[in-house]
Amino acid sequence: MSLVSALNIGKSALAVHQAAIQVTSNNVANAGNTDYTRQTPHIVPASDHLYRPGVFLGSGLNLDAVQRQIDESLQARIRTSVSDNGSAASRQQWLNRVETIFHELGDDDLSSQLSTFFNSWSDLANKPQDIGLRQIVIQNGDSLAGSLRDMRTQLDGVTSDIDKRLITTAQNANSLADQVAYLNDQISSSEAGAGASANGLRDQRDAVLKKLSELMDIKTQETGDGMVNVLVGSDPLILGKTNRGVGFKIESNGTELIPKLFIKADNGTLNVTSGTLGGLLGVRAEVGGVTGEVNTLAANLIFELNKLHSSGQGLEGLSQITAGNAVADTTAALNSPDTNLDFTPNNGSFVIHVKQKGTGLVTSTLVNVDLDGLNNNDTTLDDLRASLDGINGISATISAGKLKIQSDASDVEFSFSQDSSGVLASLGINSFFKGTDAHDIAINTDLKTRPSLLSAAKNGQLGDNQSALAIAGLESAALKGLNGSTIREKYDSMINGIAVSSATSKTNAEAASTVQDTLLAQREALSGVSLDEEAVNLIKEQRAFQAAARIISAVDELMKTILNMI
Amino acid sequence: MSIIPLQLARVSNALRMNLSQRTITQTQRSLLDVQNQLSTGRRLTTPSDDPGDAAIAIQIRKLLEQRAGFEDNLKQASSHLSEVDSTLGDMTDLLRQAQTLASANVGSDVSADQRAAAAAIVSSLYNQMLSVANKQSQGVYLFAGDTGQAPFVSDQSGIRYVGSNRVLQNRFDESAVLPFMVDGNEVFGALSSRIQGTADLSPALTTGTRLADLRGATDGGVHGGAIVLSDGTTTKTVDLSTADTIGNVVNLINAAAVGGITASIAPGGAGLLLSATGADNITVTDSGGTCAADLGIVQSTPAGPGVSITGAPLNPNLTILTNLSDLRGGAGIDLSGLIITNGSKTATVDFTTATTVEDLLNRINQSGTGVLARLSDNGTGIDILNPVQGTQMTVAANGGNTAADLGVRSFDPSSLLSELNGGRGVTTVAGADIQITRRDGTNFSVDLSGLNTVQDVLAAINTADAGGGVTATFATTGNGIVLTDSTAGGSLTVSSLNASPAAADLGINASSPTGVITGADVNSVAATGIFGNLGKLREALLSSDQTGITQAAEALQKDLDRVIHFNGQVGAQVKEFEARQNRLADQNVATKAVLSGLEDTDFNEAITRFQTLQTALQANLQTTRRLLDLNLLDFLQ
After folding, report:
1. pLDDT grade for A315, boundaries at 50, 70 and 90
2. pLDDT at residue B378 is higher than 90
3. Is the pLDDT of residue A158 over 90?
4. What's the confidence (pLDDT) of residue A138?
5. pLDDT > 70: what percent of chain A?
6. Once rounded to an integer, what is the mean pLDDT over residues B383-391?
């Protein structure tokens, strides 16, 4: 035991408390940084030495470590909640946009337009010969078709915006993954052999991981050398200092476009289920579903209305008509996929009436459309043409796959009725709408120029209104193509689906944000800096430092006394 | 607003800050929501605000929109029917005037000149009636049915009805499709009630017969569906829902190849035949629907090995597309044609080149006689009607059986004597009614009292002649009783006995030097409507025929009664439509209240919430400021 040891004790105390003040000041400096983890100096007494047998004397103190006050499992839970929050928030945002497209509960929403359209048919039934009412029906049909097209365009716009967002978000995720890999490298080389943790770098890495988890649901595994491996599902994204890369592309599987997040290293699919990317993928599928439903709705409206319209008659007969839809293979049965028809006719028949305008003489002929698949005699477009051509007074030709029927003389006109096969609607003959679904639904342009061709009658009489009445009833008719639902029911259930989805996403987003805030509060309780606490520490360390300085000066006095003895 | 649980060991500065920030943001968001509700007055702006309420709101909006359509229809219908109502009132007035004229001119103190002057007034009434009959309401002819053209046109010497009995209907309720027109034919008596074809033309079943044209075995039509067919060992479900024709049904059953069972049309053409081969033990049942029952081939217990099933008759409807050769169970009809006269026009209509019922109807309708041929309402035969008021129509054989096959001969041996001469019948007297003088100068008399039909008259004449040389038959070309005398000498003469009008009533009071008397058609068909009766009144006044005037006045009284009846009916209908309108308006008030409860802001609640939130925000801001100001570092020295 010597005065020198006492002096050394004082010296170590000075150094340790100085370091502790440094830790405190670092904490104070980072008080506003939410990514910062509060650090505490771990001060331990230095080892004793034997003064004489039976007596140990202390030899001062050591700064054993500067510890980050962190709970790694809490960090993992925070990352999960951040992912959930990111997913919910993006879902809410996009569904909100989809909901706006439909603008339901407004006065000019699609459901009001459907009502207006069908009501105008009902109104036409009051005065079937009124050209003004006919024009209103056509205008309402036109604006309904326009709205459906517009809806489809906007939904497509949402999808393409989501795709753009997916691309940039995937790029963002990739650069964050790069940073994690880089920080892994840094941490591992800083900590190698030092036996201590590089707290600042680790805080940085935690911050980047949090950002990454906002984009996708990740799991981390710490390796022995201070690095973390990052997994998405069970696929490794970051292995030590290697980022395997995140990419996004849209693939076609022949019939539809499928968005895909993949790992650049091996092109494997990245199964992201949460985070902004997961939310975007989910909401993209939902928007796709809604687009599909709008299309189904439009397609059924087109086909079912055309079926009724093509079997009806206008105020004047037809002198020539060309089918709106072309048949790819005119030698294939009309219900075969080879025809490339969007709407498939079925086994049945229709009646064509040929009228001599001068005498008013009408001759009717039944045209069979044999599509029963038996006896190898199913009707092809060529067959149909031949049987129509065989009827006195009219001739039929096919050009570019489109059937054209025309009367042989100016005194002759023709009309159709009782089509049980739907072939006229499939071919687009005497139709109201043209197009296949919401993307191209439009009014038959012939009707716009000649409203008298609008079919209000069903029995060939000028003043008949049975077709108009039947079409007005279509609004509440159960349709096979909609699994027994009516057009309105289908639309309402779609709107309700979107509303529930959107409301759920709102609730989910709130819940996810509450969970995240709760966990962040817990993290703050453990890792956050309290200035009051740091002030107390500072006072404590200041006093300890002052005491250590006094010890040194006291020992110095003692040494002087000894030296003066010489 | 969600609140995060705070059970924390330490409180960091950042935590305090975050918490304040979060609560301020949330309160502001809620405030914005309430502000939006207050400024728009709407609680629901998008369906996701409250999907449950929004779904109901959307339903209610749909209901209101639909009702707006019904309201429009009701208004249109009311206005149309009110127009009809007032028109029927006008008609009542016109008819009353005509009657007054008739009664004023029936007495013996009225001169022919005065009657001629009255006839001129009747002419004017007639013309007024014609313009009333062709009245339109907003472009729709009141009495035209669905033909969409002026229903009454001048034709020959009368008024021809070209309207139809199919009146327009529209939807006035979710479930109510109701007519909003009256049948012009019924109001004006515009069509003759005859000739309703008496023959059931029962077309034969062919492979081309459409299922939609069948009345079916149960008389309810044929509904597509699946049937379960078994031969005792193999059972298959055969889906017939794609079948359009009987041929399709036959093909589908044959394609199913259940044992050796084959389907075909039964000989005789009434129904289907399922033939068993070998030991096939046939059962047929329905699979959920009524298809097998409708097709009349249900066999729920095995028929027995090798036993075929003959289905029940399927009763195809007569349509315009039916082939003439398929009529009468496949026997077809005689095509020799008809002789049709109407007023002054006569046409011989030949069917030898006609193949379908439509051809046949076309030939008749295009014959230039102005008669109307159409399918009968019950779909079993054809009717030939006289749509011209003021002319007489006859339909006679053209040397063949066409008229008889179709059951459309206006006068034939089975005609009841009581219905001849426009319902006046054949008047007989006590004792003999007619005397027939043979060419050889001999004669015989016939008592026609108590006879029923024309056939009875023929028999009575032939019996009375007792082989004296005169034969009474019915004409094979044209309509009428034909008397043929095989003796020679002078003329064959039919004359009246005991002042009996029977010979004239039978159309045979004639004399023939050639020995053949061809009687007239005394059962001609007329449309006895308003125009016909006004015409008769005019003729009677012109010819100063008092009996005629009285008869016309009686007929006009019937017309008047009918018109008044319709007037009352239409008035009631207008009332009903108005009541429906009122009901709808009342319902709308209630429904709109429900909608408002769902969609609109509850201002009391919203304002209270606004206040609360405002207070909360204020408290929040104040505490935050105080807390963040407080720091121990300030106390360091």
Report:
1. very high
2. no
3. yes
4. 96
5. 100
6. 89
Is residue B505 over pLDDT 70?
A: yes
pLDDT of residue A1: 53
| pLDDT surpasses 60 at B1 | no
> Contact B171/A473, CB-based, under 8 Å?
yes
CA A400 to CA A420: how far, in whole Å? 26
| Residue-by-residue DSSP string for B518-570 | E------B---SHHHHHHHHHHHHHTT-HHHHHHHHHHHHHHHHHHHHHHHHH
Judging by beta carbons within 10 Å of its beta carbon (0-12, 13-18, 19+), is residue A56 exposed, middle or buried?
A: exposed
Q: In angstroms, rounded to a whole number, what is the distance separating the alpha carbons of residues B466 and B94?
A: 57
Span A150-156, average pLDDT: 94
Answer yes or no: do A348 and B2 touch at CB < 8 A: no
Picking from A93, A111, A127 by the largest number of B CB atoms within 10 A of its own CB, the best residue to mutate is A127
Rounded to a whole number of angstroms, the distance between the first and last alpha carbons of chain B is 43
Angle at B396 (CA atoms; ends B394, B402), nearest 5 degrees: 135
Please state, in angstroms and rounded to a whole number, the distance separating the CA atoms of residues B493 and A473: 69
Decide if B94 contacts B85 (C-beta within 8 A). Answer: no
Residue B372 contacts residue B385 (beta carbons within 8 Å):
yes
Contacts by residues A65-68 (CB-CB < 8 Å, ≥ 24 positions apart): A65/A41, A65/A196, A66/A19, A66/A23, A66/A39, A66/A40, A66/A41, A66/A42, A66/A196, A66/A199, A67/A39, A67/A40, A67/A41, A67/A42, A68/A37, A68/A38, A68/A39, A68/A197, A68/A199, A68/A202, A68/A203, A68/A527
Instruction: Please tell me the distance from the alpha carbon of residue B292 to that of residue B302, in angstroms, as a whole number.
Output: 15
| Closest C-alpha among A510, A515, A521 to residue B18 | A521
Residues 172-191 (B) with a CB less than 8 A from some CB of A:
174, 177, 180
Burial degree of B344 (CB within 10 A; 0-12, 13-18, 19+):
exposed
Burial of A399 (0-12, 13-18, 19+ CB in 10 A): exposed
Cα dihedral value A309, A310, A314, A319, nearest 10: 160
Write the CA distances from B595 to A108, B60, B589, integer angstroms.
Answer: 17, 7, 10
DSSP A524: H
Residue B450: what pLDDT? 87
Distances (CA, A) of A438 to A294, A310, B222: 6, 20, 36
Express each pLDDT in B364-377 by its tens digit.
999 988 899 999 88
Please answer whether residues B146 and B136 qualify as being in contact, where contact means their C-beta atoms are separated by less than 8 angstroms. Answer: no
Task: Tell me the pTM.
Answer: 0.89
- pLDDT computed for residue B636 by the predictor: 63
CA quadruple A371, A376, A380, A385: dihedral sign: negative
| The pLDDT value given to residue A433 | 95
CB A36 within 8 A of CB A14: no
C-alpha B505/C-alpha B539 separation (Å) is 22
For residue A506, the chain B residue with the least C-alpha distance is B48
Partners of A485 in the beta sheet?
Answer: A479
Quick check: B605 pLDDT over 70? yes
AA identity, residue A44: V
Mean pLDDT calculated for residue range B461-465? 90
Amino acid present at A294:
V
Name chain A contacts of B48, Cβ cutoff 8 Å. Answer: 95-96, 99, 498-503, 506
**Given CB atoms, is B280 within the 8 Å cutoff of chain A?**
no
- Report DSSP letters for A47-96, one per residue: PPEEEETTEEE---EEEEEEEE---HHHHHHHHHHHHHHHHHHHHHHHHH
Predicted complex ipTM: 0.88
Q: Give the sign of the dihedral formed by CA A110, CA A112, CA A115, CA A118.
A: negative
More confidently predicted of A256 and B327: B327
A459 lies within 8 A of chain B by CB: yes
Reduced DSSP (H G I as helix, E B as strand, rest coil) percent helix, strand, coil of chain A, to 5: 55, 20, 30
